[in-house]
Amino acid sequence: MTDESKSLATGALGTVESTVMGVAGSAPAFSVAVTAAVIVAAVGPLSVGSVLYCGLIMFGIMLAFIHLNQTTSHAGATYAWVGTIFGPTWGFFSGWGLLVASVVFMVSATIPAATSTLTLIQEYFDITTDLKESTGWVTSTAALWLTLVTIVVTKGIKHASYAQLILTLVEAAIVVALVIGAFVQYGAHPAHIPSWDWLFDFTPATFATGALTAIFFYWGWDVTMNLGEETLEGEPQPAGQGAFWAMTSLMLFYLILIIVVLLVLSDKEIADANTNVLYAIANKLFAPPWNYLAVLSTILSTIGTIETQILQFSRGMFAMARDNALHPRYSRIHPEWQTPWVATFAIWALGVVLLFASSYMPSVKDILDKSVAATCFQICFYMSMAGFACAWHYREKLNAGAREKVSYVLWPFLSASFMVFVAVYSAVVSFDTLTNIIGIGGLALGFIPLAISRRRGGAFQLDAAGSK
Fold first, then answer.
1. Structural domains of the chain ordered from first start
2. pLDDT tens digit string along 38-72?
3. Residue 202: CB atoms within 10 Å
4. pLDDT of residue 458
5. How many helices (H) and strands (E) does the chain have?
6. CA 16 to CA 8: how far, in whole Å?
7. What is the secondary structure of 70-116 as a DSSP string?
8. Rounded to whole angstroms, how far apart are CA atoms 272 and 369?
9. Most buried by CB count within 10 Å: which residue of 67, 199, 366, 375?
10. How far is C-alpha 159 from the geometric centre of its chain's CA atoms?
């Protein structure tokens, strides 16, 4: 095999590994640590309803991915499916949306790992200076974590899956301990008294606001589809099974975790915790040093989601380059590790540049808020395209039974429509100028590589290596 080979490590992953990758891609501990303060500040206890309803919306998108994957298992996933159904331009921008979201995500993903690491260092060495509030210290530590994870991912998909399995098991054990401790100690006297209003007391504005952040909770499970070419064949498809079980687990996990946050912490405590919500919970439940396990869970979860996003970006860029939608250099496969090493290096370099650019923002919280919001906009774009593509491709299922009609057409279409509403509403009403520049401007930048590709003679052509 030469360095120019187009073949990934086929058949490397099974259903269990795909499920673990999907769960790790969404990163429960990381997502709660990063976004709990944001969503509670935005909609208060209604965050429970936001997480539940967005889970159902995302389930519709998951169905679209599973059904489209039955047509073609492709490392580009949405890029390939949308390009085949709606044409090369829409396919290109669907793939580009994922690439931009993944790069911006490198900021919001690595910062919690950095702040958690600095928390442990401060406590261990008894440092009085609050390092985690220094953008310089945080971004430098984040860049170090990004570099270490990139090395693991580059070494091969099997190395990545083994590391992911260990990280996810340890993370899950710690989070389960927090959940049990929360219900035992605060079930009888919660900080927020549970109410059915948490599920139903929405206005259109609060629903859209909560949904934008809740979507970020779930994003990442779709890495199972980008790894489709590296997954075992079979019926039902292991990649699809992995996505289904990952999404089902995540819906239950997030609903319980956001309830735990509201049971244990007051609004002020949630706001003060910022990116360390789980640590704030652990501080109220357990004495030192056991409370630091929550910090460890955030670090492990963050490492896991950084890994899966690097995998997702590199496979997406590899697939687009293989089809000549991007420069062919990004389709190069390492002769020994069978990984798209040039594409992997690209997201590392872009992530580091963006991290240090963000260090000039006034606070760590500002960096996180804007990167999370911009990422959510891009998620809504490329995932809604998959939902619409599925509904259109399988439109003849409207004449089939109720189950197929809902699963193949109605649920994906309604989920996609909802994501479009959330994206447009947020861009017009909620986002400030900088967030719009990152979110919308990041997508608009795609016109440059698209024009270059067309001048080079590039055209969407599904590579035979992308089919099973």
1. 15-466 (1.20.1740.10)
2. 788 888 899 999 999 989 999 999 999 999 988 88
3. 19
4. 55
5. 20, 0
6. 19
7. HH---TTTHHHHHHHHH-HHHHHHHHHHHHHHHHHHHHHHHHHHHHH
8. 15
9. 375
10. 21
